[in-house]
Amino acid sequence: MTSSTLTAALRALPKAELHLHIEGTLEPELIFALAQRNQQTLPYPDIASLRAAYSFTNLQSFLDLYYAGAQVLQTEQDFYDMSMAYLQRVHQDGAVHVEIMFDPQTHTSRGIDIEVVFAGLARALRQARTELGLSSYLIMSFLRHLSEADAFACLESALPLREQYADLWIAIGLDSAELGNPPEKFQRVFERCKELGFRLVAHAGEEGPADYVRDALDLLQVERIDHGIRSEEDPALMMRLRSQATPLTVCPLSNLRLKVVNDLTQHNLKRLLDQGLCVTINSDDPAYFGGYLLDNYTQTIDALDLTDVEIRQLAANSINASFLPPEQKQHWLSKISQSPLPA
Ligand code: ADE
Ligand code: ZN
């Protein structure tokens, strides 16, 4: 077990969270509170029985519950409340910067205006900047189980809001069911997003094969891979990730809960790190996977017996892999190098 001294030092270590789905931060308590506020009936009698349903066999079994849970989000205040709860929580974990994915299609398909989604998220993010000193960006993500035409429609509906949210919305992502929805399906829409000047990321190599990671780099031209742990199956790809310093936003507790790995001690994070890849630690959908950012650090450090050098490297990677401007990266990197870790 991580000692309380180490946990305190990890909390004080500046770090960024780069792989976080805001809809995945809806705790059962908040799902019930929002359902009540919006006069919705949930198919669970109480909070405990909803939490008890969080036992997943694979990515799809989780996504079914995740999309169902998101249906309680109706108003700008709902999106604000959800985001503020997460920001306060991750601030307590010692995050200094977060890059948050959100899935507009999950909401617009239920008749929620995309402006409501942006407005609620942005109000919380801007408040957290001023009140908590926590910086953030938004990554608008396309759902890969939907069509290319749907992704284009999502982009078109969001573009009129770009100027209003230019301080936050700087990137595009790709998430949801990976298998059977390869990167090539979204090549044209990512090309358009690149022309528009967005930073690009995509989920790949979570459940899908190493080929999807390569195609995300070649066809989607992403700068960062979300998950990417199956890259290890392709030595040539590993060499490329290392030489290009392509960041992988790894989510250990997610991988455990979605049965991508059987046990945290079997996780390949340390091997990826040892091979010189820019690995970062993140929580993915913390309300569903039993741990926020700091829990992911402590449990991974315990399971893989990571050294102080490796821990500091993970924190530095999270800053280097972020979309922060160079001077802000430098500021946090020097804080990390001065941050004490118990021997
Ligand atoms: N959406 C939310 N969490 C996800 C994950 N782990 N993989 C793909 N899509 C997601
Ligand atoms: Zn994810």
UniProtKB/TrEMBL annotation:
Protein name: Adenine deaminase
Enzyme class: hydrolase
Task performed by this protein: Catalyzes the hydrolytic deamination of adenine to hypoxanthine. Plays an important role in the purine salvage pathway and in nitrogen catabolism.
Active site location: E206
Annotated substrate binding sites: D285
Gene Ontology terms for molecular function: hydrolase activity
Site (Important for catalytic activity): residue numbering on this chain: H227
Organism in which the protein naturally occurs: Alcaligenes endophyticus
PANTHER family per the UniProt record, alphabetical: ADENINE DEAMINASE
